[in-house]
Amino acid sequence: MTTTTTTAPARPTEPAPTLTTTIWNQLRMNLQTYTLIAALVLIWLYFSYRTDGTYLAPRNFSNLFRQMTITAFLSVGMVLVIVTGNIDLSVGKLAGFVSVVVAYYQANYLTKHFDQDWVVMLLSILIGIGVGLVYGIIQGYIIAYLNVTAFIVTLGSMWLLDGAILLRTAGRTIQANQPLFSEIGQGYQSDNFGWILAGVAVVFLFYTMFRGRQKKRSYNFDLPPLPMDLAKVTGLSALILIYIYRVNNYKGVPNPVLLLAIVVLIMIYISNNTRFGRYAYAIGGNREATKLSGVSIQRNIFLVFVLMGFLCGISGVTMASYVGYGTISAGDGYELDAIAACILGGTSTLGGVGTVFGAIVGAVIMVSLTNGLQMINTPAAYQYILKGIVLVVAVYADVRLSKNR
């Protein structure tokens, strides 16, 4: 008796995705980022048309990015705060308080006791960053270890710091215009240095891209198409070169923009390549699972707010140098611009999602709107209305994209 064996028909193999399909999928995954960049370009073109080209003239283009830096310092720290599912309403006033303290000590003590300009500048920086850092430690401890809601703590801090600014200034404007210190917020780098900086940045971008692909390949991760990565890096490199060319037609790269670029690179590395950064995203994505994995939720949230305080110190020092004064209105509204920049840049209000690069793009959009509306003489009331509408639309888009994901 013979038995016959039957074999199951072979399952049809799925065709490998084409290059066009893969690129299209990559575009869909990063739709929000590309939409933001397209919106920014449209904003620039619109205001350039309304101002007969003045909006994108080298002088205004340079000042546009200089104005953005104070908000951007706060935004890159706010990304991690929001990613962990928290909020910080005090960043604007903390930066303002730092600027007032720096101006106060510079005007009343430092310039009277030290003859060297570099000593006055160094001590002013240390005082400003120290104040921000200490405040961040205190606030972070209350939120993380005393389990008080971040919204309430930072709301109270906003009022407390507002009162502290009024007490420190006594209703008067305090000068902070020591020459070397003023270079931090008002100075420029030479044209040659700008081109050297651009060359280093382009080489670094291509090196990072190829290095990243090599590491992913060693871990058997799926790689995006090489033309896609090359297009991204080439586009970003072109933007850097165009920026350097435009600002060199005025006075060169502004010092605060250079300082911001350094901070942004450090923050991108922290958020993407350190356990601290990965834990922040994990806490926002699934707090309970992260806790069960052995991660200290309290410690990491505490460190996030300490880092936020440190960046407020940098922002406050830059503010004092750029404005040249400590005023009673220092820091007004900066917390709202920082939060709006993060949300515009794709940071989810639900936590767990957000990028430093997105926050920078969001900050540029916010300052571009403000600057453009002022140049076409839009009443202040309508400026606030438009910025509010933009923020609500951004949150709505974030909720819709989160549901789709």
Explain the overall architecture.
This protein is mainly α and 405 residues long. The chain has a single domain, classed as ABC transporter involved in vitamin B12 uptake, BtuC (Orthogonal Bundle), CATH 1.10.3470. It is built from 16 helices and two strands. A two-stranded antiparallel ribbon has the order 1-2. Helix 3 packs across helix 11 and helix 3 packs across helix 15. The longest helix has 28 residues. It is globular, with a radius of gyration of 24 Å. The model has no long low-confidence stretch (mean pLDDT 86).
Strand-residue proportion: under 5%
Terminal residue distance: 58 Å
What is the H-and-E element order? HHHHHHEHHHHHHHEHHH
Overall strand count? 2
Structural class: mainly alpha
What's the story with the biggest beta sheet? Answer: 2 strands, antiparallel
Query: What is the global morphology?
Result: globular
Average of per-residue pLDDT values: 86
| Model regions low in confidence, pLDDT < 50 over at least 5 residues | none
> What would you say the CATH architecture is?
Orthogonal Bundle
CATH fold-level label: ABC transporter involved in vitamin B12 uptake, BtuC
Rg calculated over all Cα atoms: 24 Å
Counted by DSSP, the helix tally is 16
**Strand adjacency order, main sheet:** 1-2
